Amino acid sequence: MAHQLLFMPSAITATLARQGKRLGVPIIMALSASAILPAQAATLIYSTDYLDYSLPEAVSTVCLEKNNCPEVNIQYLASNHAWMNTIVNDLVNEIATDGRDMSAPAIERGKSKSKNAAAVKISLDEFTQSQLDDLPADSMLHYSIDVQPDYLGHVGELELFEVSSYLYLGGAHGMPYVEYVLLDSNNKRRLTLDNLLIASAKPKFEALAYDAYKNWVKDFTNDVAEYEKNWPFSMTDNVSLNDQGVVLKYQSYAIAPYASGQPELVIPYNKLAGILRPQYLSAHR
Known about the structure:
The chain is 33% helix and 24% strand. A seven-stranded mixed sheet has the order 1-2-3-4-5-6-7, sandwiched between helices. The longest helix is centred in the middle third of the chain and has 18 residues. The radius of gyration is 21 Å and the shape is flat. The chain is of the alpha+beta class. The chain contains nine helices and ten strands.
């Protein structure tokens, strides 16, 4: 079957792919979502491609009869900048194969080796086979994994992306995950929280993050101390920038129950003088 090229938002192409999988088609077609972005990002053409993946025959033979085939939806960045694609897609592959441990420092997470196409296929084959191995023979549940990059915009010379995933292994719900990716267009590298901050000012930033956490908690309870007993504050280096300030994104269960989603704390730019490096503090203006 020929691949299709669709110029539409990635959310729509993702929906089409998932619908195709639910009809029992064990192949993810290579769709593409493309957009030319404005202002400083005028030379960035954002596009995503789906991984062309076929279920192992041993899996498809069984699941097609039961109409509960595992769903595999992996998207890759396919922009006009190869270095951006490499950084983002290495993360896509890592999440698709091994998951992520956000409790580890960014420098430790960055040491993992990039996965090639063969390693990704082996991991996905093992994932889909695990549905047959783990679930009872009469179960109609099906496993699923979704991983996709999204473009968030730019601040100055920074291009902002996120890679999100959703893993379902049966049960009441699956597990979502989001990791921000800040790319420095001048130096063609990924930035961490430490790159954004004046080194000596990190304790001040952490204090502001704790204040933001307490204000967030007050949105649904006045008893912050009681809330902290069950869901204490913790620092994260999963950060990005937006038009308001520095955004800290937390994974499910990090500082709140699952029902609260993935909390975001925002530290406004007007509180970050002497904390955020000047080039990032002025870039949003």
